[in-house]
Amino acid sequence: MLTLSDIINARNRLGNAIQHTPCPYSYTLSELTGCHTYHKLESFQMTGSFKERGALNRLLSLNKEEQQQGVVTASAGNHAFAIAYHSRRLSIPATIVMPVGTPLIKVSSVRREQARVILHGENYDEAYAYAQEIARQENRIFIHAFDDPLVIAGQGTIGLELLEEPIPLDAVVVPVGGGGLISGIAIAIKETNPKIKIFGVEANNAPSMTIAIEKNQVTEIPISSTIADGIAVKKVGINTFPLVKRYVDDMVTVTDEEIANAILLLLEIEKIVAEGAGATPLAALVNRKIANLEGKKVVCILSGGNIDVNLLSRIIEKGLVKDGRLAKLRVRLPDRPGFLGKLGTLIGSCNANILEISHNRQFPSAPLGENEVDFILETRGQAHIEEIITLLRKNQYQVENLSQYTSPKN
Description:
This protein has 410 residues and is an alpha/beta fold. It is built from 17 helices and 14 strands.
């Protein structure tokens, strides 16, 4: 099993090739979460995520013959980018297998580093199986994205950096996919100061570590689509699982809506772009998923910032809906002159901004003589939405709040 000395050796091996990333305090987010909140900004690495640490540590361990053979790996994006970038720096041939649905920004970033990119499979696990096949056929060195001891040790250097911060830490909250990141951090911190709590956060649609712990064995699970694609794996590592069991205090899950809202908070308040996985720790804190952290000093590992800008716009919209700042209302009204104008005036009297109106006259579900109008509104929060609905109902309008269960532009 990995030890603290392995992580210290990894740090010495990496030297100055990896950034010692900042860990700033957020006053506003601390108010929202109820604890003193810091963010370890791994998005500041050259490739935009923590994956550089483990990838480079593994590449530097190769002897000259292995370097000439070249490496192959599978990744949904960040590990791929890290392997490609540092392989180019070290003149090591690299082949990257990525799932077909990988965000375009991540595919483009890997290709820019002159790695051979193969798109294969619907998810990480299918890409992983194909990458292993290529490694056997072409006699290349396979580098696992999270279940390799040297990769885990490299990720653990984050823990060493946290211990050097001038913060009397109480807890660290870490995104969890296959478990490599949290395993390395947990070893570094728990072997140095076991009083510091370590918490893992998974996407609700991909809780592979949570289920493994519940069943006390590594278990392959079906996963659903999630905006935290970087931590969506069917099965955790055989090396990471015992480390998580030994060192991690608790695991929690967060929904896509909660993650989207956390991305929005980081963007608006801290001016930091986080990908879905990177925002999961804040999502857990904001939604009070972890008990007994009130007033504690807590570091969230912001694991990466590589997010497709098209996806970001949709996530921002989703976050605004979750926060009650976008609402979609369907209102039934008589199909007679003046009623739509009166409706708009009532909404305006509540200081809500009408962004879009969809007037369904041809195929309404309302009775004959009535129409349905959908409004997309810019609002101040859930209480403001309820104020608008109450006013409309007092004026005899039938109102349905569609934003409770659908995206505002669906």
